[in-house]
Amino acid sequence: MGFFNRNFERPGPGVERDTPRKKGFARFFELVGRDFGSFFKANLLCVVSAIPAAFLVSFGLFSHSLLITLLGGILGGMLLGPFYAGLHDTVLRAMRDEPGYWWHVYKRAMKNNWKQSLVPGALCGLLLTSQITVVWLILQSGMKLTIPMVMLFMADLLITGMCTPFLWGQLVLMDMPFAMVLKNSLLFALGNAPRALILAFLQILYWGFMLLFMPVTSVLVLLFGFSLIVLITQMIAWPAMDKIMGLEEKFKALRAEQEKDMDGPADTWY
User: Fold this and answer.
1) What is the pLDDT of residue 261?
2) pTM to 2 decimals?
3) With contact defined as beta carbons under 8 Å apart, do 83 and 171 qualify?
4) How far apart are CA 55 and CA 61, in angstroms?
5) Side-chain-facing half-sphere of 240: CA atoms under 13 Å
6) What's the CA gap between 128 and 226, in Å, rounded?
7) Which residues of the chain have pLDDT under 70?
8) Residue 10 confidence (pLDDT)
9) Which of 69, 205, 51 is nearest to 129 (CA)?
10) pLDDT score, position 1
């Protein structure tokens, strides 16, 4: 555990208050340069937790067992869900320039989010596994595709890709029933359609590349596979959520209140 908790036993000072934020690519490279270590460790935990899902889904596909494949996606998604939520929490805290050493706040985030991340993890696991299964069956059988089939499959991919960044962002930022989170995610996607379509296409291209060139890209997945695309998509999704819900101001108010109660700088806040 030394890799994770070394120098992360106590709250940290974080980013200097009122430091001007960069924008666009400058902001992206600032976050990567400053928080790469946190992103890498949160990503590594996601990779490890995804191994059972990858094994079960692969076994189901090669053994031609749809039941094992789908169960692998559901159960594997439930296992990955809390760590995927932890990664989103890490990324969103970095984007908000929140103070605190990574392991200190990651453990708290996992404690707060693991229960509500099980159902989203299972749902996302089922959707992703179903999509992979469809592609696998088409490649294996040489099935002739019709235009309606292609349109239906692309609609499934687009809707999933449009909604998931908003879903996981809300899950780690707010305490709401999953049905409300799911509804809000769909509303965010439809209300910000151009932005949401960009989110979907980026995820499709990114994970399509990773899966197409496996096992070569397994090294890339290990290093930053989950964290890179989460950072990119949340940088695009966050402004839409913040505009509607005023999240940034709420977090600042909570931090000020916490600092007042503590009579000093807060280590972390929600």
Assistant:
1) 57
2) 0.86
3) no
4) 10
5) 26
6) 14
7) 1-19, 255-270
8) 45
9) 69
10) 45
